[in-house]
Amino acid sequence: MKTQKTLLAHGFRATGCLFAGLALWAGLQASVHAQTYPSRPVKAVVAYPPGGVNDILVRHMAPTLGNALGQPLVVENVAGANGVIGNQYAARATPDGYTILFSSTPLAINASLYPNLPFDTLRAFKPVSMILKGTFVMAVHPSVPARTAKEFIELARSAPGKYNFCSSGIGSPAHLNGELLKQASKTSFVHIPYRGAGPCISDLVGGKVEVVFEGLAPLLPHIQSGRLRALAVMGEARSPALPDVPTIAEATGLNGLSADAWYGVFVPANTPDAVVNTLHDAIGKTMTNADVAKRLAELGLNAALSTPDELAQRLRSDVAKWERVIKTADVKVDR
């Protein structure tokens, strides 16, 4: 019996040594991988079709980011379901740093918009860095007799359901920005979803709808030409491109309405921290490049670097915020 116990004890010690050895080996492998990363081209996943803002900004950043990493950055568009398909593709990739995801505000929105997502938004990814912030603008057709956001709210209250706002689709940031204002101001105006921002803005310029809460870049030429009137920017600060246009909080006196667009870089969960640090450093060098900054400014986008923890906190807070808006407005999509 004593011999049996002795053998068992030796066996447990041997097993413990084996597991310790395996853990050490795995750690050494991760360390070696991190030291040599990247040793081949890196795939940059864009969860939207070519030609959109996400795609344009990544393709503009790609050469400079590739130079900072020492390897080419290969852009791959994996579009569909408001970004869900591309996000899922990136979440399921090998966590080695060779697949990185460029994502944006809809990543947080989709967590509530699609109740049966094939991944957990807050657990499937490891944040690397926020890279940009963009501005949403509340703009109206000049025929609307309101020169401020507060005046528009008063108009909407006096004639519930009379005014229409368009968006690039159900559950898009432009849609939910409108729902957010409706909920905070206790007003009623009608949402009309379009297949993309282009047709929506075209009909707004043509006077077929009255108001929009869309990104600055596609609206700015129409605002500058007088074909549209900007009433407010939806972020916490005024836009350098529209310095005389107040924030939505300034314009209405209402709290909790600020909503800017953000763009960030993520990798699959379990990617080594050393790889994340390498990517973070390269992104910092890219976003401070003068040519990159100039091009992004032309798109109405401002560099907004963050730590991984800061991006994680922003994602968590936006998931909670848009969940409240979606539930209150009873927003549903078919997938």
Can you tell me about this structure?
It is globular and about 65 Å long. Strand 1, helix 2 (53-69) and strand 2 (73-77) form a beta-alpha-beta unit. The protein has two domains: 39-133 and 260-329, 3-Layer(aba) Sandwich (D-Maltodextrin-Binding Protein, domain 2), CATH 3.40.190; 136-252, 3-Layer(aba) Sandwich (D-Maltodextrin-Binding Protein, domain 2), CATH 3.40.190.10. Helices cover 48% and strands 18% of the residues. Helix 2 (53-69) packs across helix 10 (273-287). The chain has 335 residues and is of the alpha/beta class. It is built from twelve helices and eleven strands.
Feature tags:
alpha/beta; 335 residues; D-Maltodextrin-Binding Protein, domain 2; 6-stranded mixed sheet; single chain; globular; 48% helix; 11 strands; 5-stranded mixed sheet
